């Protein structure tokens, strides 16, 4: 009898056992896990899937919390390992940190290493002590949660289980989120969630028609607000909720729609919350009410102040029209160079970080293009005081694109086709010499400058957009879409452009080549070779096409000279 250790659950265990195999309890204080984690005491928890311990990490010299898995089969282990790898990147003051996943092969135990918050109360415990909270405390708590969610949502990580049990009251009365993305990960692999979390209160369940994770987090946040304010909560329409509450003698309504506006929903939610009890400024364009300190309208992006400068650039007016960059486009004055430029503005509360990062990287990839036949990009800047980013480009909106000419029914004659074709080749040849491909050569991106001729716009932009899946491209892009980032893609698109210039209709491979009667055979052959699907017979590079066009231009000039002589 003396050789056995009796667990608190009643089971007799051999002296070799460190944990009770039935309930997972620690049998001896001071035991080590993973050679450096000294278990100090078992923590109370009701979830049967794991046993929680307070421990001391001898490597980092800090107290931690270990969640030791009771059932350590391959499915459970791989699920939690994947979860830890996902959420350990969430480093934020309002998120409880998860440090790692570890398996002690000697003891056959796997465990999650987390920040020790055992001395902190949960919001559930606070709610049990009182029926509601002051409005300012609710606002501060929710803004804490919004900050945490915004940081996580920007990384594509969603909580999925926002409720009082997962909200810890941290230092300085700040809310911190626990168990980020745990429930979605458990559901994904079919593991019972109630083995690892307390039974879910039905109060915090979202309707079945809400399937997007971002909206799910917001909906539960709205439910939480109503609970803290003892307010009524309703889904006022299929894409909005309404919280009605009374503070003092005054009744208030807080409505949030997830169908309106742009950018991260949680950031828009935060801005809506911040506007409560603030002085608001109504946008003259769309009528949306904005917080007084915002320089741009949250809904439409228009300037809210009479005059606004970003860096060395003074904004003059908003520009409309096709805009692949999506940023809000303005005409601005460069106060140093005293010339007009185009500014594409990305307010932080309207645009996701992955979009602005992609635009920044795109700028870096094309900033060295400084040729007269290429629309120049001058810079990408952060304005921290205005909470926005902006891209500065050459302003050429007063000049028409090739698409605008074609939409008027224009067909280009042989001489014009050769002239503009050569200028396009010059621009592509220059870019290719710097190892930069266009990959979106189409009439919309070819500007016809009356003074200098052709200028090419948006080098590589559509390719970046398509690869990153940032937003939907216009239908016109599909006709010119290419599958590979190689020189022959630019060559093929060049052939499509020339064909449309000649016929005022796009090339259809199923119908074959159609040219006006009596059209120059040399130019027809050049075009066919450019659009040839076979790599062995198509032009190898743009320089070959450029050379062929120069020879064709010289040949036509000789013919015209002979005609002039014959007429004499």
The beta-strand count equals 23
Rounded to the nearest angstrom, the distance between the terminal CA atoms is 128 Å
CATH topology value of the largest domain: Transferase(Phosphotransferase), domain 1
Helix % is: 25-40%
**What is the global morphology?**
elongated
Taking Cα atoms only, what radius of gyration do you get, to the nearest Å?
32 Å
Give the biggest beta sheet: 6 strands, antiparallel
> In the CATH hierarchy, what is the class of the largest domain?
Mainly Alpha
Number of domains: 4
What's the total helix number?
14
What percentage of the residues does DSSP assign to strands (E)? 15-25%
- Low-pLDDT stretches are none
Describe what is shown at a glance.
With 568 residues, the protein is α+β, with helices and mostly antiparallel strands. The protein is 32% helix and 22% strand.
